């Protein structure tokens, strides 16, 4: 998946989630979003390290 495809998919999914939030939530949802992307391998290494030290 390239950056353009990812960005397009994320925008589409975000629009769908916001529509669902309008229908099912009482609270107003802000349209100002920030995303943090991480490599899942980093988290797996941290979890394994914690398991080894526990």
Q: Could you give a quick summary of the protein structure above?
A:
With 54 residues, the protein is mostly helical.
- Radius of gyration, Cα only, in angstroms? 17 Å
The count of domains is: 1
Helices, by number, come to 2
The total count of strands amounts to 0
Taking the alpha carbons of the first and last residues, their distance comes to 37 Å
Strand content: under 5%
- What best-fitting shape do the alpha-carbon axes yield? flat
Task: Give helix and strand order, one letter per element, not per position.
Answer: HH
Structural class: mainly alpha
Poorly predicted regions are none
The overall pLDDT, averaged over residues, is 82
Q: Could you describe the largest sheet, including whether it forms a barrel?
A: none
Query: Helix coverage percent of residues?
Result: 55-70%
Describe this structure in words.
This protein is an all-alpha fold. It has helices at residues 3-24, 40-53. It has one domain (3-53). The protein has two helices and no strands.
What layout of secondary structure does this protein have?
Elements: H1 3-24, H2 40-53
Descriptors:
single chain, mainly alpha, 2 helices, 0% strand
